[in-house]
């Protein structure tokens, strides 16, 4: 019989929906769902969530159907986060809500798009995708009669805001406080952040190999990959690459997840927190062991050098940068080109309205919009 961790009781220091710090606008409860399940449901029904399907991480959406999109990435993060939360007796629904919302603020074209938009917004408060995710759930989604945004609980919003500058923190109200007071977020928020990292490092290895931009020989210099690959080969000496790669990656993910759970449980045991208020006062307790943190860092460095800065990725990034810059300049110089609702908004804050409009675009919409604005032969 499978006796693995079903139905674990919630730890006393876990986030508890019945003791949530609440929503920005009071609402009656929605039984039988708890407050965090309701957050998750609202995120799944949002427009920004659907757009994740056509936004990319590293590869542009039209490059191939096999690569991750921000949607499948978010689902992988949610899957890992729930598993880790369950092992540590933390609240799974909260980690799922945070995971599904964490990338809602991403621009089209991954980091190239974000960097380009940030540069365009240099004199207008900048652009940061993590802050934008919060902005999406607090303001930009407009589907409820009584409020803008999704009116999520404090705990979910706290988890979405992973980092922010002191200047921004001062303007963010309740969720900005921890950056000013240097306190920690819930363990659920902490672990979802790690789940994000585990997910993208591993799926980028997978997508990178599939695209042919990196190869197994190169990866054999990365300890985390090499050691797990050796285990697979010992067990299955004649395995073809198609199976060798996923067998290696699942072991890498397992190594990272197990280490994270073990080390975090040790950290928690050492500090003996009694409730979530104490968690917020303690240093972050979720983390890898020193050994695995070092191996994980090597993997990240490998990916940065060999995949994210591969010349073919650079070419796509350069194109993405150009598209975002040109869209921004075009709208900034002539707000009459914006759709009506953004024109109204532009009357109060032109640069931010343009940035919100561009950030909301999917890769393919941005490409099409660019063509509509710049290609003479293109229709409206
Ligand atoms: Mg992510």
Could you give the topology of this structure?
Layout: H1 35-44, H2 47-51, H3 70-87, H4 92-101, H5 110-120, H6 129-140, H7 154-160, H8 166-170, H9 177-181, H10 187-211, H11 216-219, H12 223-235, H13 241-271, H14 276-281, H15 290-308, H16 311-333, H17 340-346, H18 350-359, H19 363-374
Helix pairs in contact: 1-4, 3-4, 3-10, 4-7, 4-10, 5-16, 7-10, 10-13, 10-15, 12-13, 16-18, 16-19, 17-18
The chain binds magnesium ion.
Textual characterization of the structure:
- There is one protein chain.
- With 380 residues, this protein is mostly helical.
- Helix content is 61%, strand content 0%.
- The protein has 19 helices and no strands.
- The protein has helices at 35-44, 47-51, 70-87, 92-101, 110-120, 129-140, 154-160, 166-170, 177-181, 187-211, 216-219, 223-235, 241-271, 276-281, 290-308, 311-333, 340-346, 350-359, 363-374.
- Helix 4 packs across helix 10.
- It is globular and about 60 Å long.
- The mean pLDDT is 93.
- The protein binds magnesium ion (MG).
- Residues 73, 77, 102-103, 196, 200 line the site of magnesium ion.
